[in-house]
Write a structure and sequence with these properties.
Rossmann fold; rod-shaped; 42% helix; 4 domains; 6-stranded mixed beta sheet
Length: 896
């Protein structure tokens, strides 16, 4: 019971789960617990049995705890198969750039304590420990933050207790998880300035705040960046921690879905000084992959210090058998990675990183921060337990030590601005900026909470102590509503998940031979925009590696298919490796975008010769303005006027024997129908309209039927006239105009019947033809029912053949002016023209098809006009002496 009484000297502050746990303990387990407690003499006032190597404390009314990540420890390994040495050595290897995180927190505290507008009459203090990237030490120091002062008595309040209101940490996701395991029990607000671990719902909702954007936004940004630069053939390197596995699990399906595939996907070992042999073996293996790979873009994912590992990877010496460095690579880095170096990398060339593209946590430069850094000296920060080791390793010197016989001695007056950027940056980094904002968020929330307690009357001095008893769990209500503009002008606010509402910057790493570098902001990933519009890039501002001669690098499995080609998958290769094949006829591909298939142009466009673009089709029809149309119009009108002249001649000489012997009425009908034939050709020229489409084929068919039937009637009349001259012939009564007129009328009525049926069933109509010609939109007339059109032509052909047959049989009959021979020849021309018309008509398209028909009309009409009437006009005009009755009788007798 003595032990129990000693325990009762302290106030037990365990939460409900611990109380329930103790109540549920079996008597035997409780006895063992008390026996252990008594054995180790754990009671109030005892010092921490394992004090921290590095710590930094500043007192204040409210304390903000911090778990930093500045150093790695090289500890003497302890095996249980032999007695350990009496003294265990622990040497710290400092990540010098991480010291800025401590200075950012110190600077923010200094600004707040000097600002009368935030927490007036209240001071902020801090307690900083290092996790050393060790889970054991992280748990230990987190518990120590919840203990009393320098005493290590977790879960108890003994004597004077620091008023811990929040904890900032850690830099690594695993460290954040370990801190949250402890702080989640106490519901102490935790601000992580690294990327989020896998959190339980209780931690996520109640006690955890992210000072960096959600990593899912970065995943989306990586995809958008690769698509922007058209890098579809990449390599992936990720660490073998839980975060690396999560990254690959989330990203691989998304990248594949967006047409991005991988030459290699590799997991690199965790950076640790306990697995040096494994690191060197892996480096040799991956170096060969980098050298042989055809990828240009490599996505490198890792935790905050992964840049140290990347530089270790790229630094191969000749002693390690490296023939040549893999050049022509663009490293795409994640926001966790800042430019850092360890001591042994002081002289390692950084040019391999030149031109890398990286996402970065947004940062701005608070006023006075660089002056604060320039004034930082070990002599002015005597309470800073981190500065001496940092100073020695950053400047490559040692402070005064009797055992130091060689090496430079640190004066303590060296300036941080003299360090190369790989060892210490004078501009505020993204992680430091997150810590800076976290301090201000805590201060603003505490200010809002204290302000809510102030009543209308002034607070009495004696009430101040009670007033300052702020419980950390009460701060959550105000943290979720905190929103402020920091001194750099940026707005800081949290969403409902406790994540800061902020995007990422896109930066370009520009390195220089003197080990310095510049972070050039070239774009932004804005959380306020839709995913497909969130990324903005100023490509002109990017400085690429000198290997690329300032041209945008290509990272594709093979050259992009040129316009006019489509891709064809290569068997046994990833889906973004393919051959390029020519587009099928009639299809195009118009982009160098690795098109999976060619596509058809719109119906009013056609492919160009290279099948790389669509050209608008030109509208075409047989118009009066073009040469072909004008020529046909002139030809038609010329024949029209010639026909008028011939008709006028025959009318003028209607009493002459030649005209009277050739049946004047039939001659007038034939010449009139030829006049109309030449005119109806004009209906085929010009833009087709509804009326012209209805009239032109019908008019052509009927007028030509009259002309051909007139020729047939003339042929029949020649035969009847010869037969009627024979003695005792009964055919005399058939010789006369009645028979010829009947033949013409009958033939005309048959054609009129065919045309009437055509118009009644399927009349012609205007048509826009988009398909018959590749490069033209043809305005024409659709004949409606093609069968009726060919019936009209067939009927005219039948009349022509009948006339030709009769005339051919009667060619040797005696007549004065060889009428039957002229008719035979004219029908031969007529039939030849229309026999040639059919294949020519079927083999042409567009306006040329119409031109063929117009030409056939003109040629056949001109053939009738010339063959039948030219000999007669010759006699009338040039040999009038032959145009008399005596000559007619003489010729008839001679023929007999």
């Amino acid at each position: 019971m003595v032990v129990w009484e000693e325990m009762e000297e302290c106030v037990f502050t365990g939460k409900v789960p611990l109380r329930i746990g103790i109540r549920m303990m079996s008597p035997l387990f409780l006895l063992l617990l008390l026996r252990a407690y008594e054995t180790h003499n754990v009671k109030c006032g005892h010092q921490d049995p394992q004090p921290p190597l590095h710590s930094y404390y500043q007192s204040g009314d409210f304390i903000i705890g911090t778990i930093a990540s500045q150093a790695f420890l090289l500890s003497t390994s302890v095996a249980f198969d032999e007695k350990p040495p009496e003294t265990l050595s622990e040497d710290a290897i400092v990540v010098t750039n991480n010291y800025q995180h401590i200075l950012a927190l110190t600077f923010a505290m200094k600004e707040i304590n000097e600002n009368s507008q935030i927490l007036p009459n209240v001071t902020l203090g801090f307690q900083i420990y290092d996790s050393y990237s060790s889970g054991k030490r992280t748990y230990h120091r987190t518990l120590q933050l919840t203990s009393t002062g320098s005493m290590f008595v977790p879960n108890y309040k003994c004597d004077t207790q620091d008023n811990l209101i929040a904890v900032i940490g850690g830099l690594y996701s695993e460290t954040s998880q370990q801190i949250a395991d402890i702080l989640g029990i106490y519901n102490i607000p935790q601000f992580s300035y690294g990327f989020a671990p896998v959190m339980t719902e209780s931690h996520k909702v109640l006690s955890f705040y992210w000072m960096v954007p959600n990593e899912a936004l970065q995943h989306m940004g990586i995809v958008q960046l690769l698509l922007h630069f058209k890098w579809t053939w990449i390599g992936l390197l990720a660490d073998n921690q839980e975060t690396g596995g999560r990254f690959l699990q989330n990203m691989l399906p998304v990248l594949s879905h967006n047409g991005i595939c991988f030459d290699f996907i590799d997991i690199y070992p965790h950076l640790s000084f306990d697995n040096i042999a494994e690191l060197f073996a892996w480096r040799t293996e991956i170096y060969d992959k980098l050298w042989s790979s055809t990828v240009t873009s490599i996505v490198f994912y890792g935790e905050a210090d992964a840049m140290i590992f990347l530089r270790f990877l790229l630094h191969q010496s000749e002693a390690e058998g490296v023939r040549q460095k893999p050049t022509g690579k663009v490293w795409l880095l994640t926001a966790q990675m800042e430019f850092k170096s360890l001591v042994y990398q002081r002289n390692v060339d950084i040019q391999d990183i030149h031109g890398a593209i990286s996402f970065a946590i947004h940062s701005s430069e608070p006023r006075g921060f660089q002056q604060f850094l320039q004034s930082r000296r070990p002599s002015s920060a005597t309470d800073d337990g981190f500065i001496n080791d940092f100073w020695e390793q950053a400047f490559g010197c040692l402070f005064s030590d009797p055992a130091n016989e060689e090496g430079d001695t640190c004066t303590g007056e060296e300036g941080l601005e003299s360090l190369p950027g790989a060892f210490f940056e004078m501009s505020m980094t993204g992680s430091s900026y997150s810590i800076y904002n976290a301090v201000y968020a805590i201060a603003h929330a505490a200010h809002a909470m204290l302000s809510s307690r102030v009543k209308s009357r002034a607070m009495k001095a004696r009430e101040r102590g009670k007033f300052l008893k702020l419980q950390h769990w009460q701060l959550h209500h105000f943290l979720k509503r905190v929103s402020f503009n920091n001194s750099a002008g940026d707005k800081v606010t949290f969403d409902h998940n406790g994540e800061v509402v902020e995007g990422f910057d896109v930066i370009n790493w520009v390195t220089f031979p003197n080990q310095s570098f510049a972070r050039v902001k070239v774009g932004k990933l804005d959380v306020q925009f839709p995913p497909d519009e969130a990324l903005s890039i100023s490509e002109d501002a990017i400085v690429w590696h000198s290997f690329f001669h300032q041209a945008r690098p290509l990272s594709v499995c093979n050259d992009n298919c040129q316009p006019g080609y489509s891709k064809k998958k290569k068997e046994g290769k990833p889906f973004c490796c393919y051959d390029c094949i020519r587009c099928p006829e009639g299809k195009i591909s118009d982009k160098e975008a690795d098109m999976a298939d060619c596509f058809q142009c719109p119906v009013d466009h056609y492919p160009n010769k290279d099948q790389s673009a669509c050209i608008a089709k030109t509208v075409t029809f047989l118009s009066y303005e073009e040469i072909l149309g004008t020529s046909l119009v002139i030809l038609a009108l010329s024949f029209f006027f010639i026909t008028i002249v011939v008709l006028g001649t025959f009318i003028q000489h209607h009493k002459t024997p030649l005209v009277r012997a050739n049946n004047r009425n039939l001659t007038y009908i034939l010449l009139s129908s030829l006049l109309l034939c030449f005119l109806c050709a004009l209906l085929f020229i010009g833009q087709p309209q509804k009326v012209t489409c209805l009239l032109r084929q019908i008019a052509f068919g009927m007028v030509f039927s009259v002309a051909v039937s007139s020729v047939l009637a003339k042929t029949i009349m020649v035969v009847l006239a010869f037969m009627a001259t024979k003695p005792g012939s009964r055919l005399r009564k058939w010789v006369g105009t009645r028979v010829t007129n009947s033949v013409v009328l009958f033939c005309f009525l048959v054609q009129a019947g065919i045309c009437t049926v055509w118009l009644a069933t399927s009349p012609p109509f205007p048509e826009i033809d988009l398909h018959s010609m590749n490069d033209k939109i043809v305005l024409g007339c659709n004949e409606g029912l093609p069968t009726m059109f060919y019936c009209v032509l067939g009927y005219m052909g039948f009349l022509a053949i009948a006339s030709f047959t009769v005339a051919f049989l009667a060619r040797r009959l005696p007549d004065s002016f060889n009428e039957s021979k002229y008719i035979t020849f004219s029908m031969l021309v007529f039939c030849s023209v229309w026999l040639c018309f059919i294949p020519a008509y079927l083999s042409t398209k567009g306006k040329y098809m119409v031109a063929v028909e117009v030409f056939s009309i003109l040629a056949s009409s001109a053939g009738l006009l010339g063959c039948i009437f030219f000999p007669k006009c010759y006699i009338i005009w040039l040999r009038p002496e032959l145009n008399n009755r005596e000559h007619l009788i003489t010729r008839s007798n001679w023929a007999s």
